[in-house]
Write a structure and sequence with these properties.
7-stranded mixed beta sheet, binds S-adenosyl-L-homocysteine, 12 helices, about 25% strand, alpha/beta, 5-stranded antiparallel beta sheet
Length: about 350
């Protein structure tokens, strides 16, 4: 992500391809800023989120035949809250799994690595800048709001062909492209392509097939691929122009779950979902856990229930956010993905 992007012959010298711009902006942003001042994520809203994902991992480990040694990987662990909540729940409910797992965190930001180390204390996690250095072993991988940070390319339908969007002087310019995206698109339609997510999906599919295991990816985006410009930026909880201040705002894009799942299936993974987050969490017993937390601490009962509502209600995060599972072909349907 940090290496210099190649020169693009077909664009003006000062123009930067959108994915290169986004990768550079995201690396600078996560290295220098506390992203949690700009947006809030599910593990920061309710501890029950990480607890439920921990139990999902525990049930998955059982389905894998309880291997003696397994990687519990998290990509983009933020403040480390999801992993801390997951490990606490795992230690309580399935100590054998806790003893078998090794925590592996994939994180590029030195600043967030420090926050994760502080939060996880004596857990003994290992950090990686890229999934490529993860040990070859069975694994269970979790990622919440990781894929949305990966850089996208954008193409716009112009006449009978496509143009690609570049960034120059804080604004978009378009350059003709010979990309093969098909012809069935109305004038002006925007098609987003996330090559980093595609590579990650393919890597994951191959790794799961080779060593066994499963992955759970939670993020926001539509269930079906569709046209549209989903590039967005947040600063202090407000939507801002994504091109205005690279490195100072959080830039993300919707996840194309269908494309991600197809890339994993192409190398042999079995995919389940995407399911709306609200449905998935309720099937995992999230509401029961939230109600229990509310009873345990009456002074925070209102806040606990409001948090649970925020994560599950369709008009809040329950529908736009989706859960997608990838499994090796020997595994049964993972918890929460049973078809009705
Ligand atoms: N999962 C956390 C944080 C989400 S923010 C939560 O739910 O709270 C995105 C996270 O992904 C941050 O930790 C960020 O530093 C990390 N990240 C973004 N791009 C990355 C990349 N290319 N490689 C590894 N980590 C990345």
């Amino acid at each position: 992500m940090t290496s210099a992007p190649p020169e693009i012959a077909y664009a003006p010298k000062d123009a930067e391809r959108l994915d290169h711009f986004m990768a550079r902006a995201a690396a600078a942003y996560y290295a220098a800023r506390d992203p949690f001042q700009d947006f809030v994520t599910s593990p920061e809203i309710s501890q029950a989120f990480g607890e439920c994902l921990g139990l999902w991992a525990a049930v998955t480990w059982q389905a894998m035949g309880r291997p003696d040694s397994v990687l519990l990987v998290e990509c983009g662990p933020g403040r480390g809250s999801l992993m801390a909540d997951a490990l606490r729940a795992i230690a309580e409910m399935m100590p054998d799994f806790r003893a078998a797992l090794q925590v592996q965190l994939v994180e590029t930001s030195p600043r967030l690595r420090e926050a994760q180390a502080a939060k996880l204390g004596a857990v003994g996690a290992t950090w990686h800048a890229d999934v490529a250095t993860l040990p070859e072993a069975p694994m269970i991988l979790l990622a919440n709001e990781f894929l949305d940070a990966l850089p996208i390319r954008q193409f716009i339908r112009r006449g009978a062909s496509w143009c690609e969007r570049f960034v120059m002087n804080g604004a978009f310019i378009e350059q003709p492209s010979d990309v093969g995206l098909g012809h069935d698109a109305p004038e002006g339609a925007v098609c987003e392509v996330n090559e980093a997510a595609q590579h990650f999906a393919a890597w994951l599919g191959v790794r799961l097939a080779r060593h066994g295991g499963a992955a759970l990816l939670i993020d926001y985006g539509p269930a079906e691929s569709s046209f549209g410009d989903s590039l967005q930026a947040m600063r202090a909880g407000q939507s801002v122009n994504p091109l205005s201040a690279p490195g100072e705002v959080d830039i993300t894009a919707h996840v194309d779950f269908a494309a991600f799942a197809a890339a994993a299936r192409a190398v042999g993974a079995i995919t389940h979902g995407p399911l709306p987050q609200g449905v998935f969490l309720q099937r995992l017993g999230f509401m029961t856990r939230a109600a229990m937390l509310a009873r345990l601490d009456p002074s925070r009962a209102q806040a606990q229930l409001a948090a649970a509502h925020r994560l599950t209600a369709p008009e809040a995060m329950g529908r736009l956010f989706k859960a997608l599972a990838l499994c090796d072909s020997s595994l049964p349907i993972p918890a929460g993905f049973e078809t009705a």
